[in-house]
Automatic annotation (TrEMBL):
Residues 465-807 form the Alpha-L-rhamnosidase six-hairpin glycosidase domain. InterPro entries: 6-hairpin_glycosidase_sf, 6hp_glycosidase-like_sf, Alpha_rhamnosid, Bac_rhamnosid6H, Bac_rhamnosid_C, Bac_rhamnosid_N, Ig-like_fold, Rhamnosid_concanavalin. It catalyses: Hydrolysis of terminal non-reducing alpha-L-rhamnose residues in alpha-L-rhamnosides. GO terms for molecular function: hydrolase activity. Residues 359-458 form the Alpha-L-rhamnosidase concanavalin-like domain. Its EC number is 3.2.1.40. It comes from Niabella yanshanensis. Residues 810-885 form the Alpha-L-rhamnosidase C-terminal domain. Pfam families: Bac_rhamnosid (PF05592), Bac_rhamnosid6H (PF17389), Bac_rhamnosid_C (PF17390), Bac_rhamnosid_N (PF08531), Ig_Rha78A_N (PF25788). This is alpha-L-rhamnosidase. PROSITE patterns: PIPLC_X_DOMAIN. Keywords: Hydrolase. It comes from the Bacteria. Residues 178-349 form the Bacterial alpha-L-rhamnosidase N-terminal domain.
Length: 916
């Protein structure tokens, strides 16, 4: 018998996972260990980390009955099972998610070693493999460094609508005087930085640190640089790029676009010697800097220009002659509080080879990556000194083969590389990214080939958590396109698009999008960080903007966009078991609801809406927005229905956060809103809401607002409307967030699948038929006015991914963090098979079913310490077999009920094969 301790993962407020810790129960051998960081293991952002783990066993119905956590300040103590920082003792509990640290105060610049023991109901116990973490500078008192910078442009720079600001290069030499034990660097490089020690770049992160509203918070990063410090003299080099700190459009529409200042640096290196003494190197006036280096401009909208003839050879090495460099100046600190970054860094997560390169005209070539992506292009080039290669980026081509750039607005999206003329030169930009599939190459020495180029996909480091494959290739391609679109738009925050002059973290795009994304990506820390961004953007009166961080001043006071604040917190709780985000943000959420109620609620109807059911498929393929009033849903209906829905979630949040006293008020307000809503919008004679759009009927039906006994009639009106549209999408961003589940909940999963698999306009399949490799911003994104037709958006996914995994695959959290799973696939006749897999917070879940004539064969994997309620069609309760045996004889299986041809079973952890 084998017992393994799989996926033990350390969850530190910003979620450090440790995956696949397997322990042989007989030998207690630890093997197959991986550490998956949900935050940086070096420099976590909380003094009270939370611990989580998973267990795996080849037995069925395995449950944890107790655990023990040890945290030690040395490996040796941990090996002796001594937790001098914290020893939890044996805790009789089956909880394995987000257990808070309760030991002695943690200190920065100190390694902590931890392991976890689990005892199961099978009488087995095992330890995880040891893992480590360190604490970042969580207190401002930890910092001794001074902010340095230069709050001016240089003569070759431009501070304008199209800002051109060169990178700043900072350096400092120091001596390490004793035998070194450890060396840590904590720094903030605004807007972005690269750190070098003795000429070598530290870490594989890119575009660091993650973006914030720098008036409210700025993020620090921590590095263990011990192995890079040499005895005697050493050199530090930091390059500062602009990022979002020096805004892409300086002094342009100041009423809309927020500016923060010129790049600046806060740097501290702590050397800890074997004899217990320390030495601290800080940023101060002793540093030198120059802006006359190779990065001549770096602007997220416009691109990066690099002049290799101006490279500063050896500038980050000892002995470099910096006599002509300027003395660093002390500058004012940004207004925001310095805090360790709670998320993992962005990285180059995938590299792609181009599929073709073709000559367009003399000296102009078009490179095709074969895939719309977000990141940059790396080149390898040989040529004469001073020759320039220009690269312009786009998502698609015009009929004549030229780049289609009209939809990029005023983003210039051009990189320029000036050759130094010394053999083969390899380059990619450092402080910008592009959204692109095609690249126009100009000025290439000789004839370029595909081997000269490599595409780099950049997004936040996180695992791909889920996969789904069906017998329908349209559905499969939608999943693929969704993956690429979501990955492309993770940039330290969720942005709307990666290509044009926008790239903003719009709340409305992620209302249910975040939930669906969580089935493809382990996005917990990204969205927990985003909740902080949203809270920081809240005004003192309580208003929440449409974009957060508030790079744009869009406080339009609607419900559907800011309501994402509550919906994302709900997702984090359901999918990842995160209660802390609810407790942390509950006061701000309540404040926003009170603000909207006080300012815009009249007779229990919310009277303010900004965007309506955004991006309803227009009646003309050239239009951006529909002009047909029969397609438009009343904004007050949307706002009031959403407010009602959010109040229901807040009732649960009040219970979780210990604010039970608020529940009665929320309940009473909901009752009054429901009554007023139906009085104003429900048409008794026709059993439909307002003008009868799918969205108008769907929201109150799905949100539980429909008068008793009228639900079926309202639903039939939804189906009739879909049929009148030839079973095509007629909802916009708001309605589509609930559409697929709403149809399935009322027995029309087949209709939902029809919508998902259509290939004609408007549909996701239409995008694919017209060459899309991501998800478009508009249903008619190939023909609409270029003012708004991004070809890499995710907002139109709605609840499609949720529906695919929960209602096709049958993987749904019935309890937070998948402690219990509901597996109720819609075994629709149009599909022959579905294979779904998901790395949940509890462990691996798999659901694979296929149709064999009239029989369903269903393979299921439930992770240890979880259970599942499964629903399977069956002629009788006794007709179901598990591995060929009657379910009454199957270990870990119990029949709960058989009703209307559906058997409901409870199964424990393990692997199962059911047939009916």
């Amino acid at each position: 018998m084998k017992y393994s301790f799989k996926y033990a993962f350390l969850f530190l407020t910003a979620y450090i996972f440790v995956l696949q810790n397997k322990v042989d129960a007989q030998s207690l051998e630890v093997k197959n260990v991986q550490i998956e960081q949900q935050s940086h293991p070096i420099g976590i952002g909380t003094a009270t980390p939370r611990f989580s783990w998973q267990i795996s066993s080849d037995k069925r119905a395995v449950k944890q009955v107790a655990y023990e956590i040890l945290v030690a300040t040395s490996k040796a103590d941990l090996e002796k099972n001594i937790g001098d920082a914290w020893s939890s003792g044996k805790i009789n509990s089956d909880n394995a998610l987000l257990i808070p640290y309760k030991g002695s105060a943690l200190k920065p610049n100190q390694y902590y070693y931890t392991k976890i023991k689990v005892v199961t109901n099978k009488g087995e116990e095992a330890w995880s493999k040891p893992m480590f973490f360190t604490l970042g500078f969580v207190n401002n008192g930890d910092w001794k460094a001074k902010w340095i910078g230069y709050d001016k442009a240089f003569p070759w720079d431009s501070v304008s609508q199209w800002s051109r600001l060169s990178a700043r290069y900072y350096r400092k030499e120091f001596s390490s005087v004793k035998k070194l034990k450890k060396a840590f660097v904590n720094l903030v490089g605004l807007g972005m930085y690269e750190l070098r020690i003795n000429g070598k770049k530290m870490g594989d992160q890119v575009l660091a640190p993650a973006p914030t509203d720098y008036r409210k918070s700025v993020l620090s990063n921590t590095f263990d640089v011990t192995e890079h410090i040499q005895s005697g003299k050493n050199a530090i080099g930091v390059v500062l790029g602009n990022g979002r700190f020096f805004t892409m459009r300086q002094n342009y529409k100041p009423q809309k676009i927020n500016n923060f200042g010129f790049p600046k640096l806060l740097f501290q290196m702590d050397l800890i010697y074997d004899d217990g003494t320390t030495q601290t190197i800080i940023s101060d006036e002793s540093w030198k800097f120059t802006a006359d280096g190779p990065i001549r401009t770096n602007n997220e909208y416009d691109g990066e220009e690099y002049d290799a003839t101006k490279e500063l050879s050896g500038w980050a090495d000892v002995g470099y002659n910096d006599g002509q460099w300027l003395k660093a100046l002390l500058v004012a600190a940004p207004l925001g509080k310095v805090t360790p970054q709670p998320t993992k860094h962005m990285k180059v997560m995938q590299k792609l080879a181009p599929v073709s390169i073709n000559k367009l005209k003399e000296d102009i070539y078009i490179l095709d990556m074969g895939q719309n992506l977000s990141g940059w292009l790396q080149i390898k080039v040989k040529g004469k000194r001073g020759a320039q290669v220009k690269m312009k980026f786009a998502e698609s081509l015009q009929p004549d083969g030229q780049l289609y750039i009209a939809n990029l607005r005023d983003a210039r999206v051009t990189d320029v590389y000036t050759l130094k003329g010394k053999g083969e030169e390899t380059w990619h930009p450092t402080f910008i990214y592009h959204g692109f599939r095609y690249v126009e190459i100009m000025g290439w020495p000789g004839t370029p080939s595909v081997s000269d180029f490599e595409g780099h996909l950049v997004y936040d480091q996180m695992t791909t958590a889920g996969t789904l494959k069906t017998s329908n290739e349209v559905v499969n391609n939608i999943v693929k396109n969704a993956w690429w679109g979501i990955a492309s738009n993770y940039k330290g925050m969720p942005v709307d698009c990666p290509q044009r002059n926008e790239r903003q973290p719009w709340l409305g795009d992620r209302a249910q999008g975040a939930y669906g994304e969580s089935f493809l990506f382990n996005n917990a820390s990204l969205y927990a960080k985003w909740l902080d961004d949203i809270e920081e953007s809240q005004t003192t009166e309580g208003a929440i903007p449409d974009v957060a961080p508030a790079y744009w001043n869009y406080y339009s006071d609607n419900v559907t966009w800011p309501g994402t604040y509550i919906l994302v917190a709900d997702m984090l709780h359901q999918q990842f078991g995160d209660q802390q985000s609810i407790k942390k943000h509950y006061p701000s959420m309540k404040k926003w609801l009170a603000y909207m109620k006080g300012k815009y609620m009249k007779n229990f109807i919310v009277t303010k809406d900004k965007y309506g059911d955004w991006c309803v498929p227009p009646e003309d393929l050239k239009m951006i927005k529909s002009q047909d009033s029969t397609r438009t849903t009343n904004g007050q209906l949307l706002a009031t229905a959403y407010y009602y829905r959010l109040l229901g979630i807040m009732k649960r949040f009040a219970k979780i956060s210990g604010n039970d006293r608020d529940i009665a008020a929320f309940t009473a307000l909901r009752a009054n809103i429901k009554s007023a809503f139906n009085k104003k919008f429900f048409r008794t004679q026709t059993s439909q809401y307002d003008n009868g759009t799918v969205t108008a009927n769907l929201l109150p039906l799905y949100f539980g607002m429909t008068p008793d006994g009228k639900e079926q009639q309202v639903f039939e009106n939804i189906v009739k409307k879909l049929q009148s549209d030839n079973m095509h999408i007629s909802t916009g961003v708001i309605g589509t967030q609930w559409l697929m589940r709403g149809l399935t909940q009322h027995g029309k999963a087949d209709a939902a699948l029809t919508l998902a698999s259509n290939k004609t306009y408007p549909s996701w399949g239409y995008m694919i038929e017209n060459g899309a490799t991501t998800i478009w911003e508009l249903w008619n994104g190939n023909t609409a006015n270029p003012q708004m037709n991004s070809q890499n958006h995710i907002m139109l996914l709605g609840d499609l991914l949720i529906w695919m995994f929960e209602d096709l695959g049958g993987i749904k959290a019935a309890a937070p963090g998948f402690k219990e799973i509901e597996m109720k696939p819609s075994f629709v006749q149009q599909l022959n098979n579905v294979e779904a897999a998901y790395q949940s917070a509890a462990g691996d879940i798999k659901s694979q079913w296929k149709r064999n004539g009239n029989q369903i064969q269903w393979q299921i994997e439930v992770p240890a310490n979880s259970s599942a309620i499964i629903h399977i069609p069956a002629a009788t309760a006794t007709s179901i077999k598990e591995e060929g045996k009657a379910i009454s004889n199957a270990e870990g299986v119990s029949l709960l009920k058989w009703e209307n041809g559906i058997a409901t079973l409870r199964i424990g952890s393990g692997n199962y094969q059911f047939t009916n």
